[in-house]
Amino acid sequence: MIRRFLSYYIPHKKLFAADFSSAVVVAILELAFPLAVQWFVDSLLPTGNWSTIAWVGVALFLIYGLSTFLQYVVHYWGHKLGINIETDMREQLFEHVQKQSFRYFDNTKTGHIMSRFTNDLFDIGELAHHGPEDMFIAVMTFIGAFWIMFTINVKLALVILCIVPLLIGLIIFCNLQMNKAWKQMFRDIADVNARVEDSVSGVRVVQSFTNERFEISRFNKENKKFRKAKILSYKVMAFSLSGIYMMTRFIILIVLVFGAWLSFTGQLSYGELVAFILYVNVLFKPIDKISALMELYPKGMAGFKRLTEMLDTEPEVKNSEDAVAVKTLRGDIQFRNVSFQYENNKPVLDGIDLNLYAGETVAFVGPSGAGKTTICSLIPRFYDVNKGAISIDGMDIREMTKESLRSQIGIVQQDVFLFTGTLKENIAYGMLDASDEEIADAARRAHLESFIHSLPDGYETQIGERGLKLSGGQKQRIAIARMFLKNPPILILDEATSALDTETEMIIHEALTELSKDRTTLVIAHRLATIRNADRVVVVTEDGIAEEGSHDELLNQNGIFANLHRVQFGR
Ligand code: ADP
Ligand code: MG
């Protein structure tokens, strides 16, 4: 896991090397500074030589300048490194999610994917920057400082070595308390946010029951809980900061008093005493960093583990090694003994045989849950069959690349998904490089033209969350316009179950009739007009394909279809 994590540094090794070596130099300068002060106090001051002192001052100034520059490099390049790694991972993750098959999205919550993109990647980025660098620098400074202190004076160094664990213990204790308090606080703010979200999106229900008072009191309760948690976390923080402040002053005081005694008895020079006090200050930094890492490391690594788990999920539907990119298909579709299930031991389709001929329109009818949508999802390989085979123009669809296969199939779903953006962009989703003329032509054929011209911004009208809201019929027509641009030989239409008004229904029916001309069209049909105009009707029930034939043939058979027809259309 750690090796895999480190492998993300490889493309940025130059940046890492620059950042890391700068950090090492900064740490060495920091370690050397007390020694310089010691020399200054013990050897330089007694000489009383002003010009030397002035020159030393200039030299120290230059060294400080260098250190300042290097610290800038460490902060800036270090974070740049972290962000670069985070960006690489985000790109990889997005690409990976795009490639996943439908079943993956059936089984994975959107929120789960979103939190990989936000929280986890943020934690990983922080760890990528601070992890290796801070760890190395902290250990180096800690050991270095002690090593120098021992060479200066063993007794005083030993005293410090005995009390520093107290400080470390205190910091760890404070960190644990702090984490606990923060976690509670985050849980409580999540509850508050959930309440806001719930009552805003459910505001119509709230107001129609006149339950505003109830919502307010429920909200206030959560809000007070959050207040309590936040106050507690600040209390813990105040305690930590002042406790650590006291502890560090205490250590300095001990060094001062014990050092003074050592100095009276001639075992320590003034310069050495000053150096010691400075080294104690140097020590505080790595202790602080390591305790921060103790929180960062498990958080970042847990995020990284979840990320790699996601990245390691292979897409279910893949191209076989010798898959062929098909060009223009005619559109003869054949199901041979096809069985399919979404979940184990719950077969949805069992041994389906079905022939669709190029250019014909076939209506699928039957009770909801029978498997009509499922049959249609198998043709573009949104799922792979469990048994049997589907072929188009005599070729098994698993022998085609899924990109080329899908480029030959157009799908208009019940609820049309529109992206945030302009109307034009949404139509052009069917052919990304469509010209304005082609887009206008598609819109005209989808009977969208007069609607678009009635909008002040026309094709540039923003739609979606903060833009124009479209009716179901308008959305459907945008989906149809997309299909005119895509121009596939095979078309799948999942008709909306909810009733459109008669006029809209007629317009859409007209547009669809034109669209399905010269294409093999599968319609999951709910409208009488569609069923009547289809070349063939296939009745799907839970037991498979029950009846097949033209509209009139099936009515005359007086079987399931005739029955459905009577119930649904009353004639
Ligand atoms: P229809 O389109 O005829 O209404 P579907 O093809 O949507 O029927 O559904 C057929 C059966 O498969 C139903 O029992 C449904 O619950 C189940 N089903 C549909 N989609 C999924 C899915 N993504 N995961 C699991 N089960 C599903
Ligand atoms: Mg359906």
Could you give a quick summary of the protein structure above?
With 571 residues, the protein is an alpha/beta fold. It has helices at residues 2-7, 13-44, 50-99, 102-107, 110-152, 154-201, 203-208, 212-264, 270-311, 372-378, 402-407, 423-427, 436-445, 449-453, 472-486, 502-516, 528-533, 551-557, 560-569; strands at residues 333-341, 347-356, 361-365, 387-392, 395-396, 409-412, 421-422, 462-463, 490-494, 520-524, 536-541, 544-549.
Structure report:
- This protein is of the alpha/beta class.
- Helix content is about 65%, strand content about 10%.
- It has 19 helices and 12 strands.
- It has helices at about 1-5, 15-45, 50-100, 100-105, 110-150, 155-200, 205-210, 210-265, 270-310, 370-380, 400-405, 425, 435-445, 450-455, 470-485, 500-515, 530-535, 550-555, 560-570, and strands at about 335-340, 345-355, 360-365, 385-390, 395, 410, 420, 460-465, 490-495, 520-525, 535-540, 545-550.
- The chain has a 6-stranded mixed β-sheet with strand order 6-9-10-3-11-12, with helices on both faces. The protein has a 4-stranded antiparallel β-sheet with strand order 2-1-4-5, covered by helices on one side. A two-stranded antiparallel sheet has the order 7-8.
- A hairpin with a 5-residue loop joins strand 1 and strand 2.
- Helix 2 (about 15-45) runs parallel beside helix 5, helix 5 (about 110-150) runs antiparallel to helix 9 (about 270-310) and helix 6 (about 155-200) packs antiparallel against helix 8 (about 210-265).
- The longest helix has about 55 residues, at about 210-265.
- The radius of gyration is 36 Å and the shape is elongated.
- Bound molecules: adenosine-5'-diphosphate (ADP) and magnesium ion.
- InterPro entries: AAA+_ATPase, ABC1_TM_dom, ABC_transporter-like_ATP-bd, ABC_transporter-like_CS, Type_1_exporter.
- It is a multi-pass membrane protein.
- Keywords: ATP-binding, Membrane, Nucleotide-binding, Transmembrane, Transmembrane helix.
